[in-house]
């Protein structure tokens, strides 16, 4: 049987993994902007990415933490970018 600490630690590991899995999208976009290249992400997508990353960072402070059904929702277009 898991404890509240176990659940919280598991959710932090999930959150950390999610952040790591999308950092490259942010970095690629920043590099493209700095190079003056066309960007792979639209302005709206980049904003959604940053908002999602912030929600992930804030997740442990949420009153719903660590209940999995309340996890921040990943924008659906990210799955297309990561294939």
From TrEMBL:
Superkingdom of the organism of origin: Bacteria
InterPro entries: Phage_tail_APC
Domain Phage tail assembly chaperone-like: 9-75
Name of the protein this chain belongs to: Phage tail assembly chaperone-like domain-containing protein
Organism of this sequence: Pseudomonas orientalis
